[in-house]
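hey so u asked for the seq, here:
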Amino acid sequence: MATQPEANRIVLVTGPSGAGRSTAINVLEDLGYEAIDNIPLRMIPRLFDGVSIDHPLALGIDVRNRDFSVAGLLDLHLDLSKRPDSAASLLFLECRPDILLRRYSETRRRHPLAGDDTPEAGIAREIELLRPVEEKADILIDTSLLSPHELKSELHQWFADQGSQKLSVAVQSFSYKRGLPRGLDMVFDCRFLSNPHWERGLKDKTGLDADVARFVHADARFAPFVDRVTDLLAFLLPEIEAEGKTHLSVGIGCTGGQHRSVIVTEHVARALADRGLQVSTDHRELARRGLVATGSKDLSERGKATE
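ran it, structure tokens below
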């Protein structure tokens, strides 16, 4: 966990519906911000009337509020930026229209600006409405291709207390067929290990299943590979932390991202956690297929990796 960020920091969080505002608010809250989502613009100045800012704030701004206006939001940002006792930032989360449409199709929610029209029309209206805000944003993050874990990593780089946060390590499995995940610092390829995909009864299972794990463990190269990757990371991480970096993203890939990379990810992450490091895991391909929950899992909340 990060220590408390600068007490006078204010972050206004906005962007088109479905771009990740709620996720961003939750991440900022975890970083120590007092988070208030979907707050009417007219109420925000009252938070500061006659009161000095002595704790960081993250304020979610939503176009669904009946008093929302672009001019009002930009004026608010300008007024907060002029306050001598605060450091205000406007965070805008953008996203491609086709991705927004897909997200709405998956959730089956009505777009707030669609009315009786199609979701495409509502998305287009909102993007056009918010264009002046996007142009004035202090921080712009495109979430189109970001998983929740990757968005969290981006936000940590912008808003975590860089001077006092302990280095966190995210280890994620992925499929080479779908390309490398964004933002990786290191990549390890485990496609040389024996592939359960070709074994009867294992093809449709995952690296989290015990019989798949036993099959991969039987490869004489598995244990030395995991040990060498773990030792390399254990050697590098203190040096990386000494350079001031607060987050390291490690990718472990195999052909389909379902078997070998999942097993190696679990073992490497657990080995690092056992050495006292702050580690999380994320299985990109399994999450995409709905086989595990989306997002990263902190190893402090998990049992031991599959034996």
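Confidence is low (pLDDT under 50) at residues 301-307. The chain has ten helices and ten strands.
lmk if thats what u needed
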